[in-house]
Write a structure and sequence with these properties.
Blueprint (H helix, E strand, L loop, with lengths): L2 H18 L3 E3 L7 E3 L12 H15 L6 H12 L2
Antiparallel strand pairs: 1-2
Length: 83
């Protein structure tokens, strides 16, 4: 999506949100409906800069293949401790 298209889409979303006075349902032909809402609508605070940094680091590690399957890890732990 081009920067201009992204800005226009954001403006449209903001206008629709304002008109609906809160979360609203959007749909696309042939696709399931989805809800447009702000994080404040469900009572959670936005992530802090530190939290975003941790997520970015984890994402980068995943992109580099430096992750391990959770089910395999649990199986190893269970086997090691007889669980």
């Amino acid at each position: 999506m081009s920067p201009v298209a992204a800005q226009e889409f954001k403006a449209w979303l903001e206008a629709e949100y304002a008109e609906a006075q809160g979360p609203f349902t959007a749909e696309k032909i042939g696709a399931p409906e989805f809800v447009i809402m702000r994080t404040s609508d469900y009572g959670e605070e936005p992530l802090t800069e530190d939290q975003l940094r941790v997520l970015d680091k984890g994402y980068a590690e995943a992109q580099q293949g430096r992750t391990k399957d959770a089910f395999e890890s649990l199986a190893e732990i269970r086997a090691a401790y007889g669980l």
